[in-house]
Amino acid sequence: MSDTGSVWSQKFKLYQRLLNVQSNRSVVYSILWREKDQDLAERVYANVVKWVTGRSTPSYGAGIQEFFNGLAEELKCEPGVNGSTLIEATIAQTVAFLGPEERAVAAHMLRVLETPLDQTESQVGSSPVVTTSRNLDMEGLGAIWLQHTGPIQTIASGLAEGRIDQKHYYLDPESSDAWSRIIDAQSYPTYDHCLMSLRALFESPEWIACVERSKPTTSVMLAGGGAPAKDLLFLRNLTKQDHGGNCNYHYLIDISLYMLRYSAMWLCGNAAVFNSFRRKVVLKPVHRDILSFNKRDHDRFHEHGAVVFAITGGTIGNLSEAAFFRSLDQVAAHRDLLVMSADTIDDLSLEDQHILVGKYDNQDLRLWLKPVVRGVLSESESSHPESLERALRRIKVHLRSGEDGHVSDIPQSRSVVVTLDVNGREVILLTSTRYQTSQLSAYAASHGWECLGQISTQANPHFKQFLFLRT
Q: What are the residues facing 309 on neighbouring strands?
């Protein structure tokens, strides 16, 4: 990467921190968020990818100036600072241009600019992050609750069955770093599509009416580790509600300690954000398998009132839907809410199918699969050992019926299936399912959840936030 690319990469890491988002695409959409700006936002983002990789530098053309002008306003820069000023500014100058509160949040970063900001990010998943009492509230962080999660299928047994348990991708010590790279990859826009549609959901009449009626005081993020910007969206919305009293209880449930720690550190690591919530929010990270809830979990979640459960990012498509709803039955109560994100395949064109496969058939995804593929090769006992890099190149991505191989429990679904031939036998490394809107709603209804609406945005009309009420 060129020196220019390195500077712009660090600038956008700074913008991410200041705007409380996790990807460069989210930085762009934080400014160009209106439906009418969606095409412009994608053009600006395509340019951002070139800037941070050193392939070009920002110009003052149409759209670019508008984005940076909006960024200067959003960052509450001093009077007279506009988009042109931000484009020309060094990192230190950018911090100096910020408003007082934003400058206080960013000031500590000046001390670590000799080290690339992405290296300090990676420390969150391994060694302690560079921090001070000003930007990390350990009292607010509390502890991560450890609960029995049940046995996890070994790679060896998964190899024998021809399908690897997807939990393994989140149990590696580098999983939070790898996930951060995936969600910021140009080839994987799903994370940002989810974030945008969540914003649209929280502004919708359906959501406003549901929250007023159910009055939830507790939010439970299911398999939500590694996506703290979404936790922040929920907390900002729920703490605005009049019914919440002085406290909102936010459970963050995940199978991965590394992802939980990343989210907790991110949420508590920005004092300007977290201190505004500390008297309203109790953050409770829980190491738990969301497919094995019981009545004790029900009582714990409902100790303070109604609950809004959420499973975002299309994660439902990585699970057995039957197992998920059976587990949710153990903890849900009348009038609870459920927010479920899912990619849908209504009127899926050939171009849409190509785009869908492309989200998984790329170098970024192969790098994310790398630790598990290494384990598969180690257990394969092949008479012709091969290099890890060659095995990664041999990975294939298919779009199949969800009923093929019992990948999905919901009729008429389609599943992206990522496979590797091991000793002449297909082994499934990863599956991710997409749904017909009506079929997903009907399946949820069969488990006692009434669909009150689906919200999407122009950025990806197929990616929807489903809002359900427990009947």
A: 220, 338
